[in-house]
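Q: Could you fold this chain for me?
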Amino acid sequence: MNKITQTQTDICVVCDEIKELLLAKNRKYGDSALNPVRVFSKASPLEQIKVRLDDKISRLQSAQNDEDEDVITDLIGYLVLLKIVISREKENLDTTKQMYGDLCLEAM
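A: Sure. Below is the predicted structure, expressed as structure tokens.
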């Protein structure tokens, strides 16, 4: 039987914290990050998440936030959401290819 190292335990703890944060925010705000209302911005969810990531990185660079750990946690959360959006877009592209073939995509 393999013994779990302290680093592996720490990875589990941090990932669980990020998961709980994302689930709590999703319950509180709904699915707004991945399915935005689009009242003012018509940007895709992918672009909107990239903007949020840029904002967080900017705060880290300019030390606007005394709580850097919170910004880092937010960054990790947005990176998880970015991964979900990219995965969904790939699934949609694969589904479209299956339904209509490559010829339809060339016209897009």
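A (continued): The longest helix spans residues 68-107.
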